[in-house]
């Protein structure tokens, strides 16, 4: 069967500025990544990677990004991701960096990884909790995260991003 | 301290704080390293495992003259307090000395300018035998485009000589945003010409080996090997007259 094989790269946007998280947009992120590929690999690299390049999923609360590219050119993409230095949106520049978490062949595997990762992140937040209510909130979301039919992810629930 | 917090959140399990000693100015004293417990009252836990993160101290000596190496052999007590010692040679002769005789854990390879000397195979092979690792920095590559070219060209020339063994990729981040996660750094290794397995090793196992090398350098001065010797008295007696004969003949 002839099928296009893709690679899905799961990244996390890490930044010092708390406002940066809220202004993440798909288009801005796509432009930033393409710009980094152009700087590192030149015109050939940009052309190769942009065959099937899209930002598939973006979660502004946790800063999780899922990128898609062709299997043949995912190495070019992955090696250019460390060179993303800032995001631009609405004429504002936010310095940040992308941290690659997982590379998978399908969205489903990336989703499974993301659920596990969010679970560990919630556990870590649980340790730093000071408030009893926050503690209970987090425990509740920990117990309820799973791969359900509605595709609800635990990352969507309100986490205390103050510690990030 | 911010940098360390970001490190921990991104997934590193051991971090080394670096002090650079440059010998251009005279009369540099080796200062005592900052103890990591002063920075953090309690070290946070590594993501994913239940062990605490190790914070180590590291000393980098920038040598441009053979007399600077005497500092390593001196009995200054402060040197012993550092966990890892790295040397940054500026000339070919110093590179040779660092690989063969100096008692260091890491040899830094300059990434910010064109190398004044070419790597030769004999000192590199001796360094690999001795367990010394070559270090490449990735932070200048992220900052600046010309540095990126020098980094890649120096790294590739090193790869051609040492075939990708004994490489450590590390970052000298001065701000928390110049840091990159371990998976990303391994991907950078692919740009430098390493294979995928070697690149991952450059971030994980080689670093651990360097830490162990530093620990053995701090603790062990020699190894005593005892073996039970079988009785060889008769053989010795027959051997002795043979020696005497040999001496008289020679």
Automatic annotation (TrEMBL), chain A:
Belongs to the eukaryotic/archaeal RNase P protein component 2 family. Transmembrane segments: none annotated. Component of nuclear RNase P and RNase MRP ribonucleoproteins. RNase P consists of a catalytic RNA moiety and 10 different protein chains; POP1, POP4, POP5, POP7, RPP14, RPP21, RPP25, RPP30, RPP38 and RPP40. Within the RNase P complex, POP1, POP7 and RPP25 form the 'finger' subcomplex, POP5, RPP14, RPP40 and homodimeric RPP30 form the 'palm' subcomplex, and RPP21, POP4 and RPP38 form the 'wrist' subcomplex. All subunits of the RNase P complex interact with the catalytic RNA. Several subunits of RNase P are also part of the RNase MRP complex. Keywords: Nucleus, rRNA processing, tRNA processing. GO terms for biological process: rRNA processing; tRNA 5'-leader removal. The gene is Pop5. Pfam families: RNase_P_Rpp14. It is found in: Nucleus, Nucleolus. GO terms for molecular function: ribonuclease P RNA binding. It comes from Pomatostomus ruficeps (Chestnut-crowned babbler). SUPFAM superfamilies: Rnp2-like. Component of ribonuclease P, a protein complex that generates mature tRNA molecules by cleaving their 5'-ends. Also a component of the MRP ribonuclease complex, which cleaves pre-rRNA sequences. This is Ribonuclease P/MRP protein subunit POP5. Its main location: nucleus. InterPro entries: Pop5/Rpp14/Rnp2-like, RNase_P/MRP_POP5, Rnp2-like_sf. One of its GO terms (cellular component) is multimeric ribonuclease P complex.
UniProtKB/TrEMBL annotation, chain B:
Component of nuclear RNase P and RNase MRP ribonucleoproteins. RNase P consists of a catalytic RNA moiety and about 10 protein subunits; POP1, POP4, POP5, POP7, RPP14, RPP21, RPP25, RPP30, RPP38 and RPP40. Within the RNase P complex, POP1, POP7 and RPP25 form the 'finger' subcomplex, POP5, RPP14, RPP40 and homodimeric RPP30 form the 'palm' subcomplex, and RPP21, POP4 and RPP38 form the 'wrist' subcomplex. All subunits of the RNase P complex interact with the catalytic RNA. Several subunits of RNase P are also part of the RNase MRP complex. It holds the Pfam family RNase_P_p30. This is Ribonuclease P protein subunit p30. It comes from Pomatostomus ruficeps (Chestnut-crowned babbler). Belongs to the eukaryotic/archaeal RNase P protein component 3 family. Its main location: nucleus. Keywords: Acetylation, Nucleus, Phosphoprotein, rRNA processing, tRNA processing. One of its GO terms (molecular function) is RNA binding. GO terms for cellular component: nucleolar ribonuclease P complex. InterPro entries: Pol/histidinol_Pase-like, RNase_P_p30. It comes from the Eukaryota. GO terms for biological process: rRNA processing; tRNA processing. It is found in: Nucleus, Nucleolus. Component of ribonuclease P, a ribonucleoprotein complex that generates mature tRNA molecules by cleaving their 5'-ends. Also a component of the MRP ribonuclease complex, which cleaves pre-rRNA sequences.
């Amino acid at each position: 069967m002839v099928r296009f094989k893709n690679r899905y790269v799961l990244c996390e946007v890490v930044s010092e500025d708390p406002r940066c998280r809220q202004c993440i947009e798909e288009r801005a992120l796509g432009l930033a990544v393409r710009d980094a590929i152009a700087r590192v690999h030149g015109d050939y690299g940009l052309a190769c990677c942009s065959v099937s390049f899209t930002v598939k999923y973006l979660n502004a609360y946790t800063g999780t990004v899922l990128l898609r590219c062709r299997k043949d050119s995912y190495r070019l993409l992955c090696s250019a991701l460390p060179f993303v230095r800032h995001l631009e949106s609405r004429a504002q520049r936010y310095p940040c960096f992308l941290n690659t978490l997982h590379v998978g062949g399908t969205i489903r595997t990336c989703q499974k990884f993301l659920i596990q990762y969010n679970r560990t992140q919630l556990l870590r937040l649980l340790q730093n909790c000071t408030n009893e209510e926050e503690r209970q909130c987090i425990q509740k979301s920990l117990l309820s995260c799973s791969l359900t039919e509605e595709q609800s992810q635990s990352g969507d629930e309100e986490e205390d991003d103050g510690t990030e | 301290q911010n940098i360390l917090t970001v490190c921990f959140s991104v997934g590193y399990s051991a971090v080394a704080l670096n002090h650079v000693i440059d010998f251009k100015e005279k009369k540099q004293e080796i200062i005592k390293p900052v103890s990591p417990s002063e920075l953090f009252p309690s070290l946070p836990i590594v993501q994913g495992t239940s062990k605490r993160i190790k914070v180590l101290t590291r000393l980098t000596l920038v040598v441009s003259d053979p007399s600077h190496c005497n500092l390593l052999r001196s009995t200054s007590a402060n040197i012993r307090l550092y966990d890892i010692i790295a040397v940054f040679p500026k000339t070919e002769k110093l590179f040779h000395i660092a690989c063969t005789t100096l008692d260091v854990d890491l040899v830094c390879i300059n990434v910010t300018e064109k190398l004044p000397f070419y790597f030769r195979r004999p000192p590199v092979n001796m360094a690999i035998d001795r367990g010394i690792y070559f270090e490449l920095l990735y932070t200048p590559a992220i900052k600046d485009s010309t540095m990126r070219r020098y980094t890649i060209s120096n790294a590739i020339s090193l790869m051609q000589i040492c075939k990708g063994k004994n490489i450590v990729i590390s970052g000298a981040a001065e701000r928390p945003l110049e840091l990159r996660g371990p998976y990303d750094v391994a991907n950078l290794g692919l740009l430098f010409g390493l294979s995928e397995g070697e690149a991952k090793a450059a971030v994980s196992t080689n670093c651990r080996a360097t830490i162990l090398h530093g620990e053995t350098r701090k603790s062990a001065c020699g190894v005593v090997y005892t073996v039970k010797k079988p009785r060889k008295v008769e053989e010795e007696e027959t051997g002795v007259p043979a020696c005497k004969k040999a001496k008289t003949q020679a």
